[in-house]
Write a structure and sequence with these properties.
five-stranded mixed β-sheet, 33% helix, disordered C terminus
């Protein structure tokens, strides 16, 4: 059942507060969870014809949405379509059988539709230990599971825990589903080839399948730090400037690898061999850009997954969705508030991101997702389709909607260094007093309602220790080297989560608050007071709106680490900035 009414800022605040208190589990869904699901269906229905795969009470997966939204086509392309393009009975059977092939039964689900191609998400493939264990539990408890007796019988026959051929059969079922969804590319974000716990392989991955069953697929290995690494970012007062993952850790055995048969993925400006020297910002930029180039030039769908599919996977799924929306390519009729609500609710909360646990551990990967929007505003991340028609353009009305709940302002002086390419010889230096500030202001919109634009139709570690690290001379001319890298013999702090950061005294809580809007690697594309009189690009406009709205919701519900600036000080700073802005534009 679709919901009614417009999404308000209070709805977003309620959502973020709710998900900060409990992780979503389908079998424990509350009335508010049903309302959130209803809002998601309504927002999807504004632009897409879709079918729904029922997951009531977590019958298929307990940490998947109660209603899985299967996008079929855009409403503007509905001419000639009168029935679903899916054979739902057959597709439902495929999903049901595929769930055991993936870790935690988190099977492949299409979540973004662009130019007829599906971008899907899942967990990695199950190892034999998990697979046979889950098959055994399923047989023991299948009498308690809702569903037809035929489905129960089919599942039992599909995977008898005593049948050593079950692993082969179920992985081939996984391959069958991928091909049904026309997915030929798999992006694996795991740091490991296989996840090992207690000396046992608990998960595997397509790239190390012993029988090479996934050889028909283009396999990307894009190793990316797990959620534990984002505690380092938070403890650095949300400053991602010099945070670099330590790739030498023993458990990291996955290497970056892109298939040679996909030339569109080999972006000339990206120096892939230097990936182990990249900061968190550059690593995320380059991985995201690779996915976007496939969206633009690839001929089939893409699956994105990490281990469990509820931390790193939603990070990139959400960034891809927001990036394509900012280009006017998906969810074309949704406002900034609506697309933000949808991606937080559907991509993060209802697909199982455990925000309470992450907050308790300081692993704020979800917050990083929206913080990172400032680094993808440039034309390097725009996706172009020659025949694509964009139904949503930024008008003067859109510009009047800027920053409805907060004001993001930069300092007057220009950024340092160059970011003309994603693998520039110079990386951006940053200064804490040169950061865009976030000031909370009262909403001027009646009821806080955002109207949509018109539509055309695991490591805690020990205490950090200081050790000398040798870093190549930044003046060597080697592409991808950082000009602000510490010199030979300088002292670094190596953290327990596998990063090294410059050994400096910690910032105060006030500095942490200011850094929330600052760029760790200051991009020339960030907003500044000196260029506010120039009309911003539609892409930047939309992404800044989303970022500002999320900051307001997060600050008013979850809050930031040691962020205790006095409200009167904030008001004084805001007044000073507005006076300065008025003088410039006068």
């Amino acid at each position: 059942m679709a919901g009614s009414g417009k999404i308000k800022q209070s709805d977003l605040n309620q959502l973020v507060h709710h998900m900060s208190k409990k992780a979503f589990r389908a079998k424990d869904a509350t009335v508010l969870d049903e309302k959130i699901m209803s809002h998601c269906l309504t927002l999807c229905g504004k632009d897409y014809k879709y079918s729904v795969l029922d997951n009531k009470n977590g019958e298929l997966c307990n940490h998947y949405p109660p209603k899985l939204i299967l996008l079929e086509y855009e409403c503007r392309d509905s001419a000639g379509h009168h029935e679903s393009i899916y054979n739902m009975q057959s597709l439902t059977d495929m999903f049901r059988k595929d769930r055991f092939a993936r870790c935690r039964t988190r099977f492949v689900v299409p979540v973004i539709l662009i130019e007829g191609k599906h971008i899907c998400r899942s967990a990695t493939i199950s190892g034999s230990g998990e697979l046979y264990g889950r098959l055994g539990l399923n047989l023991v408890f299948n009498g308690e599971r809702s569903g037809s007796s035929t489905a129960t019988s089919d599942e039992a026959n599909n995977g008898d825990p005593g049948d050593m051929q079950a692993l082969d059969r179920i992985r081939r079922q996984d391959i069958k589903l991928l091909k049904e969804l026309r997915v030929n590319h798999i992006c694996d974000l795991m740091l490991e080839n296989k996840k090992v716990k207690y000396f046992l392989n608990v998960t595997s991955s397509e790239k190390v399948d012993k029988l090479n069953r996934y050889s028909d697929f283009s396999l990307w290995s894009l190793p990316y730090p797990g959620c534990e690494f984002f505690k380092v970012w938070r403890d650095r007062d949300y400053d991602a400037d010099r945070i670099v993952f330590d790739w030498s850790q023993e458990f990291v055995n996955s290497e970056l690898e892109l298939p040679q048969e996909s030339p569109h993925l080999h972006i000339p400006d990206i120096c892939w061999k230097e990936y182990k020297t990249w900061s968190l910002i550059k690593l995320t930029q380059n991985y995201l850009n690779t996915i976007l180039r496939h969206v633009q030039s690839g001929d089939s769908g893409l699956l994105v997954h990490c281990i469990s599919g509820w931390d790193r996977t939603p990070l990139f799924i959400s960034l891809v969705r927001l990036s394509l929306w900012a280009d006017g390519l998906v969810h074309k009729s949704l406002s900034s508030l609506e697309i933000l609500y949808f991606t937080v609710a559907y991509d993060w909360y209802q697909f199982g991101h455990d925000l309470p646990d992450r907050l308790q551990k300081g692993e704020e990967i979800m917050f990083f997702c929206f913080y990172f929007l400032k680094f993808i505003q440039s034309e390097e991340f725009i996706v172009h389709f020659p025949t694509a028609s964009r139904s949503r353009n930024v008008s003067s009305t859109d510009l009047d909607m800027h920053y409805p709940m907060g004001v993001l302002l930069d300092a007057d002086f220009p950024p340092f260094g160059s970011s003309s390419s994603l693998c520039s010889d110079q990386s951006m230096s940053s200064r804490s007093d040169a950061a865009p500030q976030l000031f909370m202001v009262e909403s001027t919109e009646k009821d806080g309602t955002m109207t949509s634009c018109p539509s055309s139709s695991a490591l805690n570690g020990s205490r950090p220790v200081s050790v000398p690290l040798r870093v190549a001379d930044s003046g060597s001319g080697s592409s991808g080297k950082r000009s602000d890298s510490p010199s030979v013999g300088s002292w670094q702090v190596v953290t327990g989560t596998g990063s090294y950061v410059e050994s400096v005294s910690p910032h105060s809580g006030a500095d942490a608050h200011r850094r929330l809007s600052s760029s760790g690697e200051f991009s020339r594309h960030s907003a500044s007071l000196s260029d506010l009189h120039h009309e911003p690009s539609p892409r930047r406009t939309r992404l800044e709106e989303v970022r500002s709205l999320f900051y307001h919701a997060y600050a008013s519900t979850v809050g930031f680490k040691n962020s205790a600036e006095d409200s009167s000080t904030l008001l004084d700073m805001f007044t000073d900035k507005m006076v300065a802005l008025g003088n410039k534009l006068a």
